[in-house]
Each structure stands twice: as structure tokens, then as C-alpha cells.
TrEMBL record:
Keywords: Calcium, Metal-binding, Repeat. The keyword Calcium applies. Residues 104-139 form the EF-hand domain. The lineage of its organism: Eukaryota, Metazoa, Spiralia, Gnathifera, Rotifera. This is EF-hand domain-containing protein. It comes from Rotaria magnacalcarata. GO terms for molecular function: calcium ion binding. InterPro entries: EF-hand-dom_pair, EF_Hand_1_Ca_BS, EF_hand_dom, Recoverin.
Amino acid sequence: MSSAKAKGGRSSAQNVDSLGIRKIHSRHTWKLESISHGKGQPVSRKAVHYVIDEVGKRKDKFHFSKQEIESLCTIFRHLTKSGDKEKIDRNRFRDILHNTFDMTDDILMDRVFKAFDRDNDGQVSMLEWVVGLNTYLRGTLDEKIAFAFTCYSLKGEKHITREEIFQLLKSSVLKV
């Protein structure tokens, strides 16, 4: 019997996902608590420092600590699966959204992918991953509104058309 169970607490294995990431979820926050550094490839210090430096140059407010950024980089490395490929493609990203955030709407998953893929190369880099999660998980209300607007605007314009809203609402209705 584990010491956590002996003390009446929950076993930490109950909150650990397939990547070895222990997540604590409350109504409004996600906290990355710990990562097991098992089989996955190590994240190069150079890559992590690059992401931290780039984040520091950005005008947008950043809501992760340096340690959390390092954890996000490690998670990213685990998700990329291979050492050659330093990016997450659309299909893998959709799997992550589905498995981690219980997203099931195909249109919305594609739009979230486009919002993360800032350079429009069809893949999410480590920097895009950290910047996207910064807004998605910890953004201010204004940042999240801007993110949602980016997801809902099909053509990337400064406004959302009636047709775009109709398509989103239509796709969000449950089919019985």
C-alpha cells in the first residue's frame, strides 16, 4: 500500500496520464505538477532556452514560470514521438485536444490548431505550443476572447460574419 493511500489520500497514479504528467484540474485552472522523465527523448537545454528567450521578447503577458515552460517543452518532446520531427502535425494535435481536453468537434479542433500554428506551416513548433498553451490555459479574459475570435474567424478577418457564427453554432449542436 502506498504512503498516499495509507494516509487516506488518493494514489498519484490516478491523475497520471500516458505521458507521465500528473494533472490537477479545478474548475478554472490546470496545473502541471510533475513529469516522469521515462522513455522519452530529453529536451535539449538549447531548445528550452530558445523558447524562454523568445517568450521574454514577446509583448504579450506570459503566465507560466520558467519551470513550467521547461515542463511544457518536455511534454512537447514526448508528444513529437521522434527525435527528427520537432513539430506536431494536425492529426497528432487533434488527438491531444481530444484526449486531454475532451474536445470532439472536428471544426473547432481544426480552428484551435490554426490558432496555435502561427506561421501557417501546417505544424505546431515547440514555441507555438508554449505560446498557445499560455493563452489557452492561463490567458486573461481579454487574451482568451482574442484567442476565441481567432478560432471563430474563418478567413482571419477583423470581424466574424453571420455565416461563420451559423457554422459554429450548427456544429456545436448535439446530434440526437
